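User: Could you check the structure of this?
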Amino acid sequence: MNAQTRPEERFDSIIIGAGHNGLATALVLARNGQRVLVLEKNNYVGGMGGTREILKGCRNEVGASCLFPLSHEIRDYFDFENHGVELIPLPVMAVNLAGPGTRPLIFYKSQLKSAWNILRAFGPGAMLGFARFLKFCEYPARVLDRFTARKAPRRLEDLIAEAQTQEEREHLELAFNGSAMEIIDRFFPNKVRHAELRASMAFAAVQATYKGPYTKGSGLCLIYTMAQEGSAGLMQRVRGGIGSLSESLARQIEQHGGEVRLKQRVSSIITEGDRAMGVKLKDGTALYAETIVSNLDKQATFDHLLAEQALGKQAQEKVDAFTHKGAFVHMLFKLRGRPTYSKELNRLNGIHGAHFGGAMVLPPEELQAAYEACQRGELPQRMPLAFQVPTVMDPTLAPPGYHIASAYGFYFPCDADKSARGKLRDSAAENIIEHISQYLPDFRELIVDQAIFSGDHFASMHGVTNGDWTHGLLHPDQMIGERCLIDGTGHTTPIRNLFLCGASCHPGPGVTFLPGYNCAHEMLATAVAPGERTSTAPAPAVRAA
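Assistant: Sure, the predicted structure tokens are below.
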């Protein structure tokens, strides 16, 4: 390349995207002496784990909202709480509601209290079934290996084949290739006595995949959701919104001499031969580095930022085969008070933290029908949803006297004709408000302002293909080692000196920081002196100590 840049505009690494994984990669590299630059097209950090004002005077999250367990290594390495982040324990993590005449399923911070609630509300058979269900999930969760840091993933089919006994192979086949309901039916077979547990577990199995609970392969998402690490499955809120985590990482990057530049849209990755060597911004500015790291998904990276660079046939076929669907809507609300549960659920009004949120679910059969309606391009009659009023635990998110609420509704017909999707979004909004009002009858009258986002908005706001926040749905053929482009590595690509660090890499979506952290360590493991990187040999599997 003949283009010249000032010496100060050359970097060791340029990271495209200031989502939490991009920032995690940058911070690890900066701590190891690299001069790093993070480029972000938006005016805030965190991406789909960010926080900013959407509704006047509020701090809103469009994307992730709660911090689920972090691996021990991640928690110790980033040490968020000693870098300006305050975590808020949730006395009640979720209240799941399954329709008129059903009992609320309450998950407390205290596991003993949760177990007692299941026993008291649903009986010893349900409690025993739940314990056996958790036990069933343990083995495939270990194989899925969602929380192990610095370890290159392997192909699912190889891991199943290496199971030591036929029983173990059948166990893994069911967990990863079977339907969620094949698993759920084993432990909660009674459709009447176990209705609430069946509906809740079915909903847990479909939130990060484009499948119904009776669809083959949906079992994997159920196992992924139930995999636990760190704080034994407890989720927490982050004071000021989940974007506070990314804001902390950005501050630390700059303290280590790195830069985070906002409102800097990357239009393409500059290559020479089969080697990445820089990026070009929308305004034409060229910036160069020894390594380029993309926090975008594979199709956004290779089909857009590298549109002029041909991949090998096998690699391109793998990129093209990844399924991306944004079959959801995300609603935000500003409320002039805290909503109250109905008379039938009045007991919840007296439980501290029970207004925080949870899920409003459907029977598995209706959930499957909702998925099939979505496939036909139709809006389901009722939308199951995840629901929160985060100001119950963190009043800093709204002006005094106000609350904010959010809801994720599934399944939005994301493949419907684009001209019809605006009207479908309006109908979805009414659908969601009506569903919430079934349990919180004063909710509608408390709404001061609202906003709705579909996958189309996620695509434009965050650059994710088809609005798919998972960067590749949790389907068996695109998880673990299948999420990698080069066997034996987690983040190396066929383009020399180009790495992927986002949720398109193992272990996938969720605010775990593992894809970004693992990417940086893979880069460091293969690094040589600046200017001497000429090999794309697979990085060694760097295992956690």
